[in-house]
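A quick aside before the break. I want you to see a complete sequence-to-structure record at least once, exactly as it would be stored in a machine-readable document. Don't worry about memorizing anything.
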Amino acid sequence: MEFPELTLKDLNGLKRAKCQIDAIFSKKQFPISEMIEIGKRLKDDYLRLEPILKRFTEKFCASCKNPCCVNRHGFPDFEDLVIQRCLGIKSRAYEKGLKDTGTCQFLGPKGCVLDRLERSYRCTWYFCDKVMDEFQKIAPKEFLSFEEVMRDLSRERQRILEIFQIEWNNHFLKECKKNNKQLK
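That is the input. The structure line, written in tokens, reads:
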């Protein structure tokens, strides 16, 4: 997928991306209902995974002396914003002047203060070595179930983005043609 790159240093770019996404979602012919239907399944997958993920992250993250949760990992990319918009989730505000490698502004005393659906995709699926070692100890049946839900989640997320990508390309193709006519 080719969407604009967002960075923590350009909070105006984040606002601009949200406006662009909202503009596409506001189109009458856009297949929002299909995306929302897929989004419901996506949300269910996140809810099914949460108890497993929480069991491992709570054990280590809250007491970690050197957290791997840094601002640049928690910052959403364009795809995260599309998914959040599809799920009806408003992303949180980001403080100005945060350092990319500074401890994430959303890391609280008991771990992340954001609901899993509010987090960036890369943030949600990153696990440090300690968590991964512990994760390897779960029963094979539970691991297979977890892996199946992860695949479903990934597939559903990808499908939403593919649908959005088509409209995104059409939207900006029309904008380019319009701008070219105005230049002549």
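Two observations worth writing down. The two ends are 31 Å apart (CA to CA). The chain has a mean pLDDT of 85. We'll return to this after the break.
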